[in-house]
Design goal:
The complex is a heterodimer of chains A (881) and B (124). In chain A, the strands form six sheets. Chain A has a six-stranded antiparallel beta sheet, sandwiched between helices. Chain A has a five-stranded parallel beta sheet with strand order 2-1-3-4-5, with helices on both faces. In chain A, strands 7-6-10-9-8 form a five-stranded antiparallel beta sheet, sandwiched between helices. With 881 residues, chain A is of the alpha+beta class. Helix content of chain A is 47%, strand content 22%. Chain A is flat and about 200 Å long. Chain A is built from 24 helices and 28 strands. Chain B has one domain: Rossmann fold. Chain B has five helices and five strands. Chain B has a five-stranded parallel beta sheet with strand order 2-1-3-4-5, sandwiched between helices. In chain B, α3 links the parallel β3 and β4. The chains are: A alpha+beta (881), B alpha/beta (124). Chains A and B meet through α18 and α19 of A and α1 of B.
């Protein structure tokens, strides 16, 4: 079923509805059994833009109408079966058919038929045969009518729906306005006539019966309000109508209640004010609440004031309390003063040691005396044997005379009563000398003599032994001492006793130490003591003699800083183990000496190392001698092994060739040759042995005796050169010597040996001949220099480096150049023993120059012993080591 | 073919003595007077035996060095080496043997004993 359901369909828009209608082509249903008529009508209608459906009989027509409702039905009256009238009636019974025009077509033009057609519900009637033009116009008119009708129907439906909605919302608003709780609303027009009004307050305000519809009423706005407010209401509502401001308020009272009215302008879409709204609210309760609030506030203020008063009172009582507290405070301060006194006394006694002890005790006595408002405060000390009493310390206030000088070496037995009492009570409080017991006569006399009215005396003990007593006096009997004075005195007495006893022990120690120090001070060894870490605490005066350090500079330094860095570990170890070590020690002059040191660990009472005592002796000379001996030994061994090797070489030839000569038959010439070789090597061996002995003598130094004498070196060298000229024919010798050269101090034989060695080398190493130049010059004030130059093979720097080593030969493979390899070593030893230098310059392939220097003997010292066994330079050298 | 013997010694007298000692045997004698020479000749000639002095001043390579060089070279390590030296201490011998020497003779030596040793080495 396609029945339109307006109640559920969306509300159509009127305009769009019309547009839709015109766009659609009208649909026409033709019901006729005559096909020609159908076709004819179709042609006519289609030309006019209609959509035509052709149906042959009534039943089909009903079905077609149901499924596809047309805009117009053309119905033949004479149909087979059901006739047109019946069909028309049935159509009209169908829903939505009332607006569809039905035109009956019939050839029957009788009034009965026509009446039947209209009775069946037909809209119009057209007779056959159809007149084209009339038909066209009539159909068109009917279609148009139908369309207009449809449109109107739709519009009506829309309007009805809108009206329903409006009514709905109006109802809502009205309910809202009428039921507006505790208020009233007025909508008024420009003429100040009320259009709508409502609200719970309305009757109260105006005495009118409930809501009055604006349309009915036309009442002026002010008439809704009590008379006395009307002027105000009017003017303020008018202001709203003028719309300059969005909102106005007006307050008024009526019949005991308070109201507030707000006025708002109402604007249309373009913003023009066309009406106004007044809303009235009953603010009586609010006002009441405000008043309540104000009252509460006032109450609160009163309460605050009341509280302030209470506080003031509390403050006052607090002040009383504070005063009470201050009292307590004073007492506390007093107690603190006592404690501070004790702590200051004890720190003084502890920190300042025994030297400051006397001052400390004196100060402490004064502090205690002044604190107690006493007149005298004093200390008596028992002697070590407990037989005598000494007044060690005294403080007096000025009210009494100091008496310390009177009370020295007093027999302790005199104060028998007091001392006995101490065994029961360490604190004796004496209020009045007259109240002392009978057997305390001596004590009473003592007090009397010291003009004492009352006194407190406290025993001083150390390790449960009485060592003396501390006393405090006042000239007044029954003196009011501070409450805790006895306690304070007890503590102070204990502190004094401990401090004094320490002092006594220390003094004893010091006196024994003094004796010990007197011993160490007189010893030759450096004696010093360090703490466990090696910081020197004591150094004997002999440290000056041994190390060159003044004891006061030596102390407070670290002992290991003086020990040679290589020896430190060994020394540390020795201290912990053997307690003796030999090591190098840096002296004040920066040089090291060898010391032999004995150490001893000092232990404290807990067996921890407390210090180390050192006794060091300078053993440098012994060490030096040992060292020299060792060096000598090493040299000897080395020399012997080298010498043995060198001796084996000629021996090899001697033994080998002699064995061959013995065991083999050979030609006499060959025998002769080998024998000659044996002989040569034997000679060589002899020379070698001579040189070896020579060198060992020279190296032993001490065993060596240079026969020193004033020598004319120029003359000596000249003479030696001449002997050589005769021996070497291949070479040309030149000699150049200083004339009037100063003398040198030398051993003639040894220096000749050097010159001969250099000359023979020059000849040996220039085998092809050439010049040999010999000069004697004076290169500086203190020396003469002998130089020998050849034009021989020269030397490489490498060869020059080893030149003066024993058994070194620059060209050993060259047997043509014989020699032991000891000549230059011996020369070097000889020159150095003379305090001179030997050296060489060489150009490889072009010859060498050997030179040596000898110190000139000073002319003023010509009286010096000629055969001084050791050279002065030599002595200096030894001492430098 | 005669066995080849290389005599190495810086002393001419010793070289002569050794060669005279060995001249009665069926050997071809060669001589070197320092380490470098000895090494070069040993590599060129490939002797069967080397009589090697240890101390040769003036030579950058001593007998021990020559011995070590030859014994560490696969081409020459089969050469029999007898140290012939004046260094007779125990440690000298040890150094020699550690360098790879096969025998050790100390100067002064007996030519007869040397001859015996040489023929023992070469004639077997």
């Amino acid at each position: 079923m396609t029945t339109p359901d307006n109640s559920t369909a969306p509300t159509p828009n009127l305009n769009s509805l019309m547009a839709d209608e015109s766009a659609l082509s009208p649909r026409v249903l033709i019901v006729d059994d005559d096909g020609d008529i159908r076709r004819l009508i179709r042609v006519i209608l289609e030309r006019d833009g209609c959509i035509v459906s052709e149906i042959e009989n009534g039943a089909d027509a009903l079905e077609e109408f149901r499924t596809n409702t047309p805009d117009l039905v053309l119905l033949d009256y004479l149909l087979p079966g059901m006739n047109g009238g019946d069909v028309c009636r049935l159509l009209r019974e169908m829903p939505d058919s009332e607006n569809v025009p039905i035109i009956m077509l019939t050839a029957l033009d009788d009034p009965k038929t026509i009446e039947a057609c209209f009775a069946a519900g037909a809209t119009d009637f057209i007779t056959k045969p159809i007149h084209r033009v009339v038909f066209r116009h009539r159909v068109r008119k009917l279609i148009q009518l139908k369309k207009t009708q449809d449109r109107l129907l739709s519009q009506t439906q829309v309007l009805r729906q809108m009206h329903g909605e409006l009514m709905q919302s109006r109802k809502l608003y009205r309910t809202l306005v009428e039921k507006l709780p505790n208020g009233a609303v007025f909508l008024f027009d420009q003429y100040m006539h009320v259009s709508i009004c409502g609200g719970e307050l309305l009757p109260t305000l105006s005495n009118r019966s409930r809501t009055v519809s604006a349309a009915e009423d036309q009442t002026a706005l002010e008439d809704y309000f009590p008379v006395h407010t009307r002027g105000g209401i009017r003017s303020f509502s008018e202001a709203a109508l003028h719309g300059q401001s969005a909102r106005f308020t007006y307050e008024f009272n009526h019949e005991g209640r308070s109201y507030i009215a707000h006025a708002y302008p109402v604007r249309d879409e373009s913003g023009v004010v066309f009406a106004g709204v007044v809303i009235v609210q009953d603010i009586t309760d609010m006002k009441h609440a405000e008043q309540l609030l104000r009252d509460n506030q006032q109450q609160l203020e009163q309460l605050v004031e009341q509280r302030t008063e209470e506080l003031r009172q509390a403050n006052q009582s607090l002040q009383w309390e504070v005063k009470g507290r201050q009292q307590v405070q004073i007492e506390l301060q007093y107690r603190m003063q006592v404690e501070r006194l004790i702590s200051s006394i004890s720190t003084r006694l502890l920190s300042e040691g025994t030297i400051e002890l006397e001052n400390s005790i004196q100060t402490a006595l004064q502090a205690v005396g002044e604190f107690a408002d006493a007149d005298r405060c004093y200390v008596f000390q028992l002697s070590g044997d407990g037989l005598l009493l000494f007044n060690r310390f005294e403080w007096t206030s000025g009210a009494v005379e100091p008496q310390i000088h009177l009370w020295q070496s007093i027999p302790a037995a005199l104060f028998r009563w007091l001392i006995n009492s101490f065994s029961q009570n360490r604190v004796m409080v004496i209020d009045h000398p007259e109240r002392l017991p009978f057997d305390a006569a001596a004590e009473a006399k003592f007090m009397d003599k010291r003009t004492v009215g009352s006194s407190i005396i406290v025993a001083m003990t150390f390790e449960d032994k009485l060592t003396g007593f501390l006393g405090i006096d006042s000239i007044y009997p029954d003196f009011n001492w501070p409450d805790n004075l006895p306690t304070l005195l007890k503590i102070v007495a204990e502190l004094f006793a401990t401090a004094l006893e320490h002092k006594r022990t220390e003094e004893a120690l010091r006196s024994s130490e003094k004796k010990l120090r007197q011993i160490t001070d007189t010893m030759l060894d450096a004696v010093y003591q360090t703490d466990a870490h090696g910081v020197i605490e004591y150094a004997s005066p002999s440290c000056w003699q041994v190390f060159g350090y003044r004891p006061e500079d030596f102390v407070q330094t670290l002992i290991y800083s003086y020990v040679h860095p290589d020896d430190v570990d060994m020394v540390r170890k020795a201290i912990q183990t053997t307690g003796s070590a030999e090591y190098r020690f840096r002296c004040a002059d920066g040089g090291y000496i060898w010391v032999e040191t004995l150490t001893n660990l000092l232990f404290d009472s807990n067996d921890g190392v407390e210090g180390i005592v050192f006794a060091s002796r300078n053993i440098t000379e012994r060490k030096q001698a040992e060292h020299e001996l060792e060096e000598l030994n090493r040299l000897k061994t080395e020399f012997l092994s080298t010498a043995a090797h060198e001796l084996r070489t000629p021996l090899t030839s001697i033994r080998g060739f002699s064995e061959i000569l013995i065991t083999r038959q050979m030609a006499p010439e060959r025998q002769q040759h080998y024998l000659k070789m044996v002989n040569e090597q034997a000679t060589n061996l002899g020379k070698l042995i001579d040189d070896l002995l020579d060198i060992s003598r020279l190296e032993a130094k001490r065993g060596m005796t240079l026969m020193l004498d004033r020598l004319d070196l120029v003359n000596l060298v000249r003479t030696l050169t001449h002997t050589f000229i005769e021996a070497a024919s291949k070479h040309k010798f030149t000699f150049e010597g200083l004339s009037a050269a100063p003398s040198v101090l030398g051993d003639q034989m040894r220096l000749s040996q050097v010159v001969q060695n250099l000359l023979s080398n020059a000849v040996k190493y220039s085998p092809n001949g050439g010049e040999v130049n010999i000069t004697v010059t004076q290169p500086d004030e203190g020396h003469l220099q002998v130089s020998v130059s050849d034009q021989g093979m020269g030397m490489t720097p490498e060869q020059m480096q080893h030149l003066f080593e024993k058994f070194y030969r620059a060209d050993a493979s060259n047997t043509a150049i014989g020699g032991t390899g000891l000549g230059l070593s011996i020369s070097k030893l000889i020159v150095e023993l003379h305090g001179g230098e030997i050296g060489v310059t060489s150009d490889y392939g072009n010859g060498s120059t050997f030179y040596f220097t000898v110190p000139i003997v000073a002319e003023l010292n010509n009286s010096e012993p000629a055969n001084n066994p050791t050279n002065p330079a030599l002595i200096g050298k030894v001492n430098r080591q | 073919m005669n066995k080849k013997i290389l005599i190495v010694d810086d002393q001419a007298a010793v070289r002569e003595l050794v060669s005279v000692t060995l001249e009665i045997g069926p050997y071809e004698i060669m001589m070197a007077e320092n380490g470098e020479q000895a090494l070069a000749m040993a590599r060129n000639v490939m002797p069967d035996l080397i009589l090697l002095d240890v101390q040769m001043p003036g030579s950058s390579l001593d007998g021990v060095g020559v011995c070590r060089a030859l014994k560490s070279d696969p081409n020459t390590q089969q050469i029999h080496i007898i140290m012939l030296t004046a260094k007779g201490q125990d440690w000298d011998r040890q150094i020699g043997f550690e360098a790879g020497a096969n025998g050790y003779f100390v100067k002064p030596f007996s030519p007869l004993e040397l001859m015996e040793e040489v023929s023992k080495v070469l004639d077997n």
